[in-house]
Fold this protein.
Amino acid sequence: MKVERRMREHDLGAAARVVEACRRCEIGVTRTQSVYGEGDPCAALMCVGEGPGETEDRLGRPFVGRAGELLERMLAAIGLAREDVYICNTVKCRPTLDTGRRLANRAPTPDEMRNCRPYLDSQIALVRPRVILALGAPAAKSFLGERFSITKQRGQWFEGPLGIPIVATFHPAYILRQTGGAMTEVKRLVYADLKEVRKRLDEPPVASEPAEQATLFDQRGVSPRHPS
């Protein structure tokens, strides 16, 4: 596994440099730096969000700031550490909207997502996760089509790229925008989705998959708790 990990790290690093040089979209020019992805190159779980925000654009890392902190607590609720998963976005550059005073975050356009899709597909092929967790409606729709409804179909399993099981839940940033009882209810739904992810990861790996990879997410004495 050590040799395999080094090979995947090398290939992901090479792919990241290709993304850094990419200028297919206008956001490739306006962004500060590309945000390719990070985490265990042999991860059983890949978390895919929408796109980098202001902090991610500045630091060159996905899911940092408050949303990143909440994602880490969400993962810890099912016994996973951030460094055990692979985290990336559907687009690798920050989509922005010029408000006249400052650049604001916006959702990526369909063209931007299409232009970036080969990079995401390459990441999935290199990491070969056992499960993909789509965070938020835009990420889910990028895999499952525009008719996908995050409110009606979150927590349901679908077949993703390369036959990998994929499930969607609400984005951490969406959770943070809720207040009072609404936040409590959304957290309850997200925790239910995460428990489904945990169950799928705990299933025996398929015969064609190296057995060692399945041990990456064994319970490590971490009691599930509600993300907060």
